[in-house]
Write a structure and sequence with these properties.
One of its GO terms (molecular function) is 5-methyltetrahydropteroyltriglutamate-homocysteine S-methyltransferase activity. This protein has about 775 residues and is an alpha/beta fold. The strands form 7 sheets. It has an 8-stranded parallel β-sheet. β12, α9 and β13 form a beta-alpha-beta unit. It starts with a strand and ends with a helix.
Length: about 775
């Protein structure tokens, strides 16, 4: 029989229970045992739910309190030296993920360590913690490996799971040389870590496991021959050591495996393919499998929220069954469902207000049901009612007037050539901006948001519930903005922001002001650690409902004589950080959003706002996995940013901001954005983002982040002086800005002000140095 399976499940819980637990532990409201008891209950509920839905291969071992890759590092003892003196494993774990700053006590020494580097997980909006390795790295397996313990916990509930591990080659390949260590090939450590993987697999077998899922997502990358050899060595060794005692499924997802499959295909029992991203690979892989191998077909989209076209998926699975037989096919999501919200059952408002849209939605729980329905259909069970209901919903989505606006589509079709770039080169624009803004050397600014305090969150909830009137809410927001402007003036920042107290999320806020968007009540997904986001849903053609930011930005500018930045989210990010429609080309949708933002940028300039920031943190993460696909994507994504920003005069300064990413790979495209000022997250990168300036001539202004805002830790003046001095090795003084890594929304006011005081002091110190 065809098996229904899953690759992973949202760890955060149905109502973000894990987030609340972890943050309660961080704040000291609960102790470690309460945290462990709480997350065990969440795990158990998830296993039971998947079993009740009818899944036969249920994952375990992928549950994490912060990040799966960080879990892997600690599980195998890859602990950077700066954290090794932290005795409590849980404190150590969270210190690596988010940093730790703790005063000395009678029983413990002072601790002050930053967090490890954080990067985007392939082309998703999830962030993982980058492992760090020494050339003489030693690995040591946990006494009770967490993947084994999770398997045993599920077994105690009479739920037989399929344990999940981050594969040894992906783990090493995605890592980096530890801070202060000369770059080296991290895959050279494979002989050291591989025996520990084998030991874990043997412990799983002893505990009663019959299948194990090993995730090797790097299989979808453009890999050098040495990496393929490492994959071959790893799985040949695992095969030899296990001698068939445990069946191994290697999972690749997010793209095409292409020729990389040859590195593993002869040494594993099953292979998982992402047939949502790469359906064409089914035909190329089927002939490569031997007579006993199993194929896991990822036909249900694990990354988006639209219902599956069951008939299309069944056709793909039937093709696999025709070639292999039913016993050698597993039905699965394309990737872990950790990238999808929990369940549509909580979406009461959409169901009541827009039942048609609701009928098109499918979250993790519903995707499990879709997987089971597909498997049942292949196995000859009666699913007629499910198929008829699904077909009807698919057809209404295709034909609904909610999805098409002829006026919007006509405007996109008639965009004039001159609208795709600013009329004057940067040198001309900079001259006009210097004259108008009169900024000092090393201007200081922030990225946009200030702390979202409890008072702000309570007021927003009261306003949404109708217990706070529009007038009272507006008065409250103005008071918050006034305070934020006063704080910035007291700190002596040069270019100010209004602080964004009215915004719950940089994408959702604008989605409410655009046609074509809708919003979930509980569509949360994890972005990093305990940080969750609730992406909007783009279901129709996009256009502006009216001015979006004019009132608050003009009010904030009226409170100060210093230049104020208007704050917008860019077209690529508005798409990538939403659950985006999949029924029109991405470049057409991006142009729709770009035109809506262009109208807002022009209105901000007309209202007297001298600086306008259009953030594009998602432009790098949206880069296609395979380099062969890069050029087409970069052409339209960069073009749509320029479309949104090119309607203003030379003296209006356009800013943009980008988050943790490997920018060096697309440096020319970043330059082609032609923003007057770009700010980037940099504090965790050990200068690697800056070294590109040694070889590339970047003539526009830039602000590499001076300190990490994802940690409550306050860096000292001396620490920031060192970092700023390093920046001056690569960036001419007249182009360099001083700013934090990212927005300050998630921080508290005391640490925010303390860090900004130090940052401004650093800028003033270097101004004095350059005048001397």
């Amino acid at each position: 029989m065809v098996i229904a399976s899953n690759l992973g499940f949202p760890v955060v819980g149905s109502q973000r229970e894990l987030k609340k637990l972890v943050e309660s532990f961080w704040s000291g409201k609960i102790n470690e045992q309460s945290l462990r008891d709480g997350y065990s209950k969440i795990q158990q509920a998830h296993w039971v739910l998947q079993q009740e839905k009818g899944l036969q291969h249920i994952p375990s071992g992928e549950f994490t309190l912060y990040d799966r890759v960080l879990d892997t590092a600690q599980q195998f003892g890859a602990i950077p030296k700066r954290y090794q003196d932290i005795a409590n494993p849980l404190d150590q774990f969270f210190a690596m993920g988010r940093g730790l700053q703790r005063a000395a006590t009678e029983s413990s020494a002072k601790v002050d360590v930053p967090s490890m580097e954080m990067k985007k997980w392939f082309d998703t909006n999830y962030h993982f913690i980058v492992p760090e390795f020494e050339q003489d790295q030693s690995f040591q397996l946990e006494q009770a490996p967490r993947v084994v313990e999770q398997f045993k916990a599920a077994k105690a509930l009479n739920i037989h799971t399929r344990p999940v591990l981050v594969g040894p080659v992906s783990f090493l390949y995605l890592g980096k040389a530890a801070k202060g260590v000369e770059e080296f090939d991290t895959l050279s450590l494979l002989p050291k870590v591989l025996p520990l993987y084998v030991e874990v697999l043997k412990q799983l077998k002893e505990a009663g496991a019959d299948w194990v899922q090993i995730d090797e997502p790097i299989l979808i990358l453009d890999l050098e021959a040495s990496v393929k050899l490492a994959l071959e060595k790893a799985y040949k060794t695992i095969q030899a050591q296990l001698a068939g005692a445990l069946k191994v499924l290697v999972a690749a997802y997010f793209g095409r495996v292409e020729s990389n499959i040859y590195a593993v295909k002869d040494f594993v029992d099953a292979i998982h393919l992402d047939l949502v991203r790469a359906p064409e690979e089914l035909d190329t892989v089927l002939p490569l499998l031997n007579k006993d191998q199993v194929l896991s077909v990822g036909v249900v989209d694990g990354r988006n929220i639209w219902i599956n076209n069951l008939q299309n998926s069944i056709a793909l699975v039937q093709k696999a069954v025709a070639a292999l037989g039913q016993d050698r096919v597993i039905v699965a999501p394309s990737c872990s469902l950790a990238h999808s919200p929990f369940s549509t059952s909580f979406e009461v408002k959409i169901k009541e207000k827009n039942p048609e849209l609701y009928s098109w939605l499918s979250f993790s729980v519903e995707k499990c049901a879709e997987i089971v329905t597909i498997a049942k259909a292949i196995n000859g069970q009666d699913v007629k009612a499910e198929l008829e209901s699904n077909a009807a919903a698919i057809e209404t989505r295709r034909t609904s007037p909610q999805t098409v606006n002829p006026t919007v589509r006509d405007r996109v079709a008639k965009i004039p050539t001159e609208a795709w770039k600013r009329p004057s080169p940067f040198a001309t624009r900079r001259e006009a901006q210097v004259k108008k803004l009169k900024l000092p050397l090393f201007p200081t600014t922030t990225i946009g948001s200030f702390p979202q305090t409890k008072d702000i969150r309570v007021a927003r909830q009261q306003y949404k519930k109708g217990t706070l009137s529009q007038a009272d809410y507006d008065t409250f927001i103005k008071a918050q903005m006034k305070n934020m402007v006063e704080v910035q003036e007291k700190l002596d920042l040069d270019v100010l922001v209004h602080g964004e107290p009215e915004r719950n999320d940089m994408v959702e806020h604008f989605g409410h002001l655009l046609h074509g968007y809708d919003f979930t009540e509980n569509g949360w997904v994890v972005s990093y650690g305990s940080r969750c986001v609730k992406p909007p849903v783009i279901f129709g053609d996009v256009s502006r409902r009216g001015p979006m930011t004019i009132d608050e930005t003009v009010y904030a500018q009226s409170l100060t004589k210093r230049p104020m930045k208007g704050m917008l989210t860019g077209p690529v990010t508005m798409m990538k950080w939403s659950f985006v429609r999949d029924d029109i080309p991405a470049n057409d949708l991006c142009a729709q959003v770009g035109l809506a933002l262009r109208d807002e940028v022009v209105d901000l300039e007309s209202a007297g706002i001298p600086c306008i920031q259009v953030d594009e943190p998602a432009i790098r993460e949206g880069l296609p996995i395979r380099r062969a696909d890069w050029d087409a994507y970069l052409e339209w994504s960069v073009g749509c940013f320029r479309l949104s920003t090119s309607g203003v005069r030379d003296e209006t300064q356009i800013h943009t901001h980008m988050c943790y990413s490997d920018f060096n790979e697309i440096f020319d495209a970043i330059a082609a954005l032609d923003a007057d000022v770009i700010t980037i997250e940099n504090s965790k990168s050990d200068e690697k983002l800056l070294k590109i300036f040694e070889t590339k001539q970047y003539t526009n202004e830039i602000g590499p982040g001076l300190y990490d805002i994802h940690s409550p830790r306050v860096p000292s003046v001396e620490e920031m002086k060192q970092r700023f001095g390093d920046m001056l090795k690569y960036i001419p003084a007249h182009l360099l800005w001083a700013n934090p890594d990212c927005g300050l929304k998630s921080r508290q006011w005391p640490e925010t002000e303390a860090a900004l005081v130090n940052m401004v002091e650093v800028a003033k110190y270097f101004r004095a140095q350059h005048k001397a």
